[in-house]
UniProtKB/TrEMBL annotation:
PANTHER family registered for this protein in UniProt: MITOCHONDRIAL RNA PSEUDOURIDINE SYNTHASE (PTHR21600), RNA PSEUDOURIDYLATE SYNTHASE DOMAIN-CONTAINING PROTEIN 1 (PTHR21600:SF87)
GO molecular function, one term: pseudouridine synthase activity
Pfam family, one: PseudoU_synth_2
CDD domains linked: PseudoU_synth_RluA_like
Region feature Disordered, mapped onto this chain: 257-285
Name this protein carries in UniProt: RNA pseudouridylate synthase domain-containing protein 1
Compositional bias segments (type: Basic and acidic residues): 258-271
Record-linked InterPro entries: PsdUridine_synth_cat_dom_sf, PsdUridine_synth_RsuA/RluA, RluA_PseudoU_synthase
One GO-annotated biological process of the protein: enzyme-directed rRNA pseudouridine synthesis
Lineage, opening ranks: Eukaryota, Metazoa, Chordata, Craniata, Vertebrata
Domain Pseudouridine synthase RsuA/RluA-like: 17-182
Organism field: Triplophysa rosa (Cave loach)
Length: 297
């Protein structure tokens, strides 16, 4: 539970094209604020100064985003071509991601699909938040789905909690946090979506555990080790295992292979699948930034 520092950078994967790091909790990926010295970008510059590209604003091309409070696997492209390949995988929704979380209370259903459209909260004092369709001040909600699977039941500091695996099927801002809050099982330590009441834990218990980017020439598949273990945090006390994480991981690992086989046998199905999703405004803006900065040819 060491705090973030320039020296404290864990590398999960490193090639001439990519670095995947295990992002620390409570650290921004990058920042334009002069007073924010601790960022993933500054960590990378500290450890790999020779890899920083002066032609980019931050020096490194982050392939996707993780919230300030979220830890786990974060992929960074080291050149324009690599960025383009990753960009296409994210744009076509080919990337597989899975998160671990501790949520408040006892989740009754072992498996469920959370299907709540998410929009911007325009309520005064909550404009930094997202909300589900039907909530007061919810603007421009877009379809959002998350698969939730219960891993373990237990307690955190004596209060009932559930350890879950979350697989986002869409990529909205704060999606996992909003969806867990919507079913009345907010993520432990989520200060924002507990309306500033859950401030005792040392961090928000959300971790990007698995990342698979199925590129043809360099497929990337990484696991950021589970931080929610009693050996690492004595306040977490598991009591009953429902679905072993290793078993679920095996299923996740075989899914991309099955999809690849399916794409070879039924190309029309994949074509319709890749062309149908609607991008969020945030994704469109990010794609435009990528396209403006990098030549993808």
């Amino acid at each position: 539970m060491e705090p973030a520092s320039l020296e404290n950078l864990s590398v999960l994967y490193h090639s001439e094209n990519y670095i995947v790091v295990n992002k620390h909790w409570d650290i921004r990926i990058d920042s334009k604020m002069w007073y924010e010295k601790q960022t993933v970008q500054s960590q990378l510059k500290h450890h790999f100064p020779e890899l920083a590209d002066p032609g980019t604003y931050y020096g490194f091309r982050f392939c996707h985003q993780l919230d300030f409070s979220t830890s786990g696997a974060l992929c960074v492209a080291l050149n324009k071509a690599a960025a383009g390949h990753a960009y296409r995988c994210f744009k076509e929704r080919l990337v597989t991601k899975a998160y671990l979380a501790l949520v408040r209370g006892t989740v009754a259903e072992e498996r469920m699909t959370l299907d709540f459209a998410i929009g911007k909260n325009t309520t005064e004092g909550k404009t930094h938040m997202m909300c589900i369709e039907g909530a007061e001040g919810c603007e421009n909600p877009k379809p959002s789905q998350t698969e939730l699977t219960v891993l373990e039941y237990g307690a955190y500091e004596g209060d009932p909690v559930t350890k879950v695996l979350l697989q986002p099927l869409t990529g909205r801002t704060h999606q996992l946090r909003v969806h867990c809050s919507a079913i009345h099982h907010p993520i432990v330590g989520d200060y924002t979506y507990s309306l500033r009441t859950d401030n005792t834990p040392y961090r928000m218990m959300l971790h990007a555990y698995f990342l698979h980017i199925p590129q043809e020439k360099e497929p990337i598949q990484v696991i950021a080790p589970d931080p929610f273990l009693p050996s690492l945090d004595s306040k977490w006390a598991p009591q009953r295992c429902v679905n072993p994480l290793d078993d679920l991981l095996k299923n996740i690992l075989t899914e991309p292979q099955a999809e690849m086989k399916e794409s070879q046998e039924e190309p029309e199905t994949v074509h319709r699948r890749s062309s149908s999703p609607v991008e969020s405004e945030e994704q469109k803006a990010q794609c435009q930034r990528w396209l403006c900065e990098w030549n993808l040819d």
